[in-house]
Amino acid sequence: MISVEEEITVLFSTEIGRLRYIGGASALTEAEVIKVTRDIVARFFNSDFCDIHLNHGDLLEAIWSWVGVKSEHRQKVAELLSMMGSLRPQSSERKSKWVVIRRQLLQELNLPEAVVNRLQTVGLRFCGAADQALARLRGALPTDKPTRKALDELSDLYSHLRVWRIERHVYINPLMPPTEGYHRDLFFQVYLVKDNNPGSLTEGTLLAVGGRYDYLLRQMWGLEHKSNPPGAVGASLALETIIQHSPVDVKPIRYEVSNDVLVCSKGGGGLLAERMELVAELWEENIKAEFVPIPDPSLTEQYEYANEHDIKCLVIITDTGVSQKGSVKVRHLELKKEKEVERENLVSFPATLLTPGEPHC
């Protein structure tokens, strides 16, 4: 689990900050990296002016085939389309830019008009708010396994982001190419878009990119390993650009060291959304909190995770506790103490529980 404050103190010393996450379920860990990236960016900019663009390598491949762009033309077409990549879907700026791009596709690349028309359909109809774009893509594209898997993973990713209340200005951009060749699955880009203030940017500024690099790990995985390589996702932040465009003074962020909390589930099918929501609330109170990044871990797996990461304090939620009693259990493994806490009081309870020194469990 990545701590925003922990990473910021490290990343301020470099022009490009990098986050990495090894293991966990694909869409879930991608969502967490996007959340951390967005939380960092939100320290400098109003989140209303930050757009998150999502795509998937298999979806991009399906779009090229559906449109009819030959492999030898794809790189050049992608370069032309990148001229409007940062613009919000359905915006007047994007539609105006498409007129210029369309002319270049026809005159410079000599693409057939039917191909250009399909590209225009993708650019103006299939790029958009995540829920709407995914529905349109499912209705238009073939239902082969890679395409279906790509759309399912994008849908899962968006669902996880919604749990963390990151749903505004999240767009599916199926024409967006990855910034790295090894991003063959989910990948994303974060843009700072213009506002209405005089002198503001006319087009988006790229603040962060990221995605899964499972493909790279598979290529590097030695034959001596009998198991499959773990999944991995990462992000790169343009810190120099962020600081340059930031409307606020950049000050060092003091990070108070505290003990970790592991938010666990017992029964209830994993209670993934509830674990994610609770972790986010603890993060907002500057409490280091984690959860096992798979949908339905057993209690044994969660205890093993706590032991491996030297986490002594567990917050355990159950389906009955959440729905009926509105309470959770706080358990300290080292002291072998446990206390039931009202859900609404949990955030204030760990504030004293998790300060350095002797725990109060």
Automatic annotation (TrEMBL):
One of its GO terms (biological process) is mitochondrial translation. It is an enzyme of class 2 (transferase). Residues 260-349 form the Histidyl tRNA synthetase-related domain. One of its GO terms (cellular component) is cytosol. The keyword Protein biosynthesis applies. It catalyses: L-threonyl-[protein] + ATP = O-phospho-L-threonyl-[protein] + ADP + H(+); L-seryl-[protein] + ATP = O-phospho-L-seryl-[protein] + ADP + H(+). Its EC number is 2.7.11.1. Residues 22-242 form the Class II Histidinyl-tRNA synthetase (HisRS)-like catalytic core domain. InterPro entries: aa-tRNA-synth_II/BPL/LPL, Anticodon-bd_dom_sf, HisRS-like_core, HisRS-related_dom. Keywords: ATP-binding, Kinase, Nucleotide-binding, Protein biosynthesis, Serine/threonine-protein kinase, Transferase. This is non-specific serine/threonine protein kinase. It comes from Prunus armeniaca.
